[in-house]
Amino acid sequence: MDISRRGFIKLMGAGTACLGLSGLGLDVKPALAYTTTMKTAGAKEVVSICPYCSCGCNIIMFIKDGKFISSEGDPDYPVSEGSLCAKGASFHALHMNPHRVIQPLYRAPGSSEWVEKDWDFMLGTIARRLKDVRDKDFKEKNDKGQVVNRLDTVMHVGSALMDNEECAVTVQALRAMGVYQIDHQARV
Amino acid sequence: MTKSFLIDTSRCTACRGCQIACKEWKDFPAVHTLQTGTHQNPPDLGPYNYKLIRFKEYKINNRVEWLFFPEQCRHCDEPGCKAGADAIMEGAIIKDKDTGAVLYTELTKQFTPQQAEDVRSMCPYNVPRWSKEKGELTKCDMCFDRITNGAVPACVKTCCTGCMNFGEREAMIKLGNERLEKIRKTYPKATLLDPDEVSVIFLVTEDRKLYHEFAERRTPAPLPGMGRQEFLASLTRPFKAMFG
Amino acid sequence: MTQHWIDIKNSNAVLIMGSNAAENHPISFKWVLRAKDQGATVIHVDPKFSRTSARCNFHVPLRSGTDIAFLGGMLRYILEKNLIQREYVAEYTNAGFILGKDYEFKDGLFSGYDPVKRVYDRKKWDFARDENGTPKRDKTLKDPRCVFQVMKKHYARYTLDMVSQVTGVSKANLLKVYDAFGATGKPDKAGTMMYALGWTQHTVGVQNIRLAAIIQLLLGNIGVAGGGVNALRGEPNVQGSTDHAVLWDILPGYLAPPLATQVTLEDYNKVLTPKSADPMSVNWWQNFPKYSVSLFKGWFGEAATPENGYGYDWTPKVEPGEQYSNMFMFDRMYKHQMRGAFFLGHNPAQSMPNTHKIRKALANLDWMVVGEVDHTETTDFWRGPDVDPAKVKTEVFLLPCSHRGEKGGTTTNSGRWQMWHHKGFEPAGTSKSMGQIEVELFHAVRDLYAKEGGAFPEPILKLDMDREYDPEKVAMKVNGWFTRDCTVNGKEFKKGDQVPNFTFLTADGSTTSLCWLYSGSYPEVGKNLTKRRDHTQTEMQAKLGLFPNFSWAWPVNRRIIYNRASVDVNGKPFNPALPVVLYEGDNKWVGDVVDGAGPPMAQPGGKYPFIMHTEGHAQIFGPGRVDGPLPEHYEPAETPLTVNPFSKQMNNPAIRWIESDMDQLAKHGDPRFPIVLTTYGVTEHWLSGTDSRNTKIILEAEPQLYLEMSHELAKEKGIANGDVVEIESIRGKVQAVAMVTIRVVPFKVMGKTVHLVGMPFAFGWTTPGVGDSTNRLTPTVGDPNTYIPEYKASLVNVRKAPKITELER
């Protein structure tokens, strides 16, 4: 990554410093209990972008041993100059959310609970459902006899959270399958 | 040269980036809150909230003034809390001479709850909070880990409008006076709060009393006629009785 | 945005209307305050006083849903006081165009209205044209049938008195705004408008923005530094996801969707490729076939041939005049016409209007697939409040999605900067990126078709899509590449070369591009411009706050669009102190990337600046919208009034109503629901709240659903600050905590007092005790152009909750 780091280098500089207690005439021990090492010292920095509003604030993620430990605004982003609002400032906490869904979950018709399933089951079953409905409902021609090649009974909504590249493949795949009832947050 | 903050409330949008950035940097857990008819939440500073935006609204000269006050420890030049703590246990509260940061050390854990309350009540701004869970006295530490490594405190780093500023004391005083001169054209009552006594200088546009009960400085000094020895001796008694 | 975030600092007046920028786009205020520091007047016009208002020079409260009246009054004032930038208006807009004989406006209706179908025949709004089809013009703007004069007459009715009566804004406040903003009509002054969902979420949403644009054109505020009409986009990539058309009504790059009547690619291209006989008009959309063919070629690769219209033949065609947007799809779902649904990063059971209906509709699906990071009111609708899971037959697949930090790719900010974000660490659990999920799902379907055959398998089997989702490769494909050795624009290319930019796209299958607007972002192999972090700028660019080497902006790295309108016909900047582009002769411009090629307009070979319009002129008169060529005030679908003071048409005549047993609307002036409700976002939460509610340090700061109301209303209803109240519309009830505040005031409208209350919509039942969807109150009715729902103005009543059931206390 080509990052010019206006002032940020300093932040990552020594990483530790000593608290100057000489002359205070105090017992050094309790003061040293004060952390003088930044928790981000030695962490790898990777630039991400805030997933909330469209200010697009660039955010530096601090990664240690493959783990995401902290984040803050990227001073190189000319729009934010390193600042963040309440939501942007919680970027790290957002990722640490304990409520997150991290395994595929399946809920059978009429069931009152989720069951954890693997991806093969999920993708295979969804594909089966979609193919069955498509084979049954696909419309090559409309009532007027015009060629329409579409599937009227399946819809897809979302998402403005997707990256541009994700949007590109989504639209491509959906339209190829005849799914055209597509919408997302641009309209809410 | 020590460090100072300039908190220019005339630029605050109460986005609460600072409030959250503080918690993030400190890895503090969320506290449980409820909506009580105000945007101010949590309602007060606490062991997991060293930084808090206070909200107050008034109609002044037929204009709505919504006052935001990014509250935190003022890092006093002569900290009342430190004076109190010194009388109990030297080194429990220290003032770092390089930065001016007022730091609560692990020794505050040895305070009895009453001693902690005594020290707490010495604060002219009612900032320190006793943490039952941690068993210690808590407040903002100026992001000591950050500032001793060349970074600015987390709250300052995240501020998007230039409300939160941090730097050499002289520079902050200068900036404060420059801002004050400009802002007084619109808000003639604008003033810097206690610039000669604290490292965290607020610029407010209205009468300080309007912002918060403790925006006004209380004077936790010995009572008139009381000498230093007497004062220290009195520290075994609750302070509230002294200047309540 | 026509400009970009930083450019706001260059404004002399900032009108924030239909937006609460400081709360919902907090970083924007960095630049708003810098403008203010330099003397700009910052104005907030909004129903309630918010954190935005707190930092503005002044706030003006406005009854929700009356923006057109407010702006119409401003337009009249600008004309009356002659504050317009005359040269700009006469030369660059269609103000001088002569209207055809069929155009008429009478008592709230434009000519061509069919009251049964509730649609206009827009041909009636055409211009008078010469023998070549070029509109006739009177640059003196005096012809009584020219746009300028017709507009003047149209808005003559928007007097101060009338506007004040309708909007509830005092005349003094109206004049304060009109004067401050009108002052930017001087050639060297710029005013900017910042809007968001406060303008779009109305049954007159598009016309709100049209009127804003008209005023900006009259004042010469488009294309100049510090000027613009700026949609503050609400989602991290709603700009990009719209550009890439995750929508039924466009294909990527704003190409129209194929219709059932457009049998072949030729039919499709012919209808959508405009012609202009005017040599000074760039008529950019004449390139339409290059973009459509490159898109289809990108989709179907080798299989896309001239014989199958490069795959056009395989793509779905929609019925002309039919609607397929959210509200209509869910209506079909409610009526058992939908069998399966995919929701990716979307929470309609919380965010769609009339969520009671949405929650019921979801139970009518056979199956649904949800891609999410959290449990939401949609993923778990089958166990929601008052739902018996045993009775819900919908089969639900919940696929865990990776979060932002766990994947790489680009998003596009509101200023159209396309920026790469890097993957920082491995996805949690077995979660996958949405891109990977979509690709794997497609391949699972394709595998079944390969094995079993089935209905119309060709497009599925022949789609050009890798099995693995690789954002870098897709980014290259979005930019586009050459499919064979060829020469374009006199330059030779080899098969596999990246297309330098969209001016090299072709209509013969030799190029691909998954979205022409983004062509230029990845012009060479190994040269991904969205990753640029370079701050290099010229002195001129530094003064503007332009960072041409940081990331990349569409189109062709232009940072301020329509920038050719920042100079006069001879190329001299209207504001010499802050030029956006400067002409150096010999077709060379410096500063920003100039809009369209060629010298200034008055020189030989010069072009009109508004290159996207067929006639090259900005449209003060806009015949392209379904509900009228000039904005007109209509009341919201639910209004406290019983008559529209402006005309006999109470509501937008082109609204298509959605009808079902659950789609009730309050009567006009309904005594049961006398209070106007407006809904909004709040700094600490985001949209339906699933991300922010589950980030507990954020929830701590804004923990529960609240209702902001005036002291006057609270007194009338016996409600104290902090009480739990019940808000009721004809569609449902919601509980919230009362926030009684001086920041909300009653309005005086047509002589009577109208109360307004406001609520956020971020709180839902999957987060216990915080409250549930505000949208149980809002109606399923929307703007007839976009079908964005009218969340901003509906009718309710409020009382102290007899029993607290939805909120922790």
Short description:
With 244 residues, chain B is of the alpha+beta class. Chain B has helices spanning 17-26, 80-88, 113-121, 144-147, 154-158, 169-183, 228-233, 240-243; strands spanning 3-8, 52-60, 63-71, 93-95, 102-104, 129-131, 136-138, 164-168, 191-193, 200-204. In chain B, 25% of the residues lie in helices and 20% in strands.
Itemize the secondary structure elements and their pairings.
The complex is a heterotrimer of chains A (188), B (244) and C (809).
Chain A: H1 8-12, H2 28-32, E1 44-49, E2 58-64, E3 67-73, H3 86-89, H4 91-95, E4 105-107, E5 115-116, H5 119-137, E6 139-141, E7 147-157, H6 164-176, E8 179-183
Parallel strand pairs in A: 7-8
Antiparallel strand pairs in A: 1-2, 2-3, 4-5, 6-7
Chain B: E1 3-8, H1 17-26, E2 52-60, E3 63-71, H2 80-88, E4 93-95, E5 102-104, H3 113-121, E6 129-131, E7 136-138, H4 144-147, H5 154-158, E8 164-168, H6 169-183, E9 191-193, E10 200-204, H7 228-233, H8 240-243
Parallel strand pairs in B: 1-10
Antiparallel strand pairs in B: 1-8, 2-3, 4-5, 6-7, 9-10
Chain C: E1 13-17, H1 21-24, H2 28-37, E2 41-45, H3 51-54, E3 58-60, H4 67-80, H5 86-92, E4 105-106, E5 109-110, E6 113-114, E7 119-120, H6 147-154, H7 160-167, H8 171-182, E8 191-195, H9 197-200, H10 205-218, E9 228-231, H11 238-243, H12 265-272, H13 288-300, H14 326-334, E10 340-344, H15 348-351, H16 355-362, E11 367-372, E12 395-400, E13 409-412, E14 417-421, H17 434-452, H18 458-462, H19 471-479, E15 486-488, E16 491-493, H20 539-544, E17 552-553, E18 581-583, E19 589-591, E20 675-680, H21 690-693, H22 696-699, E21 706-709, H23 711-717, E22 724-729, E23 732-740, E24 747-749, E25 752-754, E26 756-760, E27 794-800
Parallel strand pairs in C: 1-2, 1-8, 2-3, 8-9, 10-11, 11-12, 20-26, 21-23
Antiparallel strand pairs in C: 4-5, 6-7, 13-14, 14-17, 15-16, 18-19, 20-27, 22-23, 22-27, 24-25
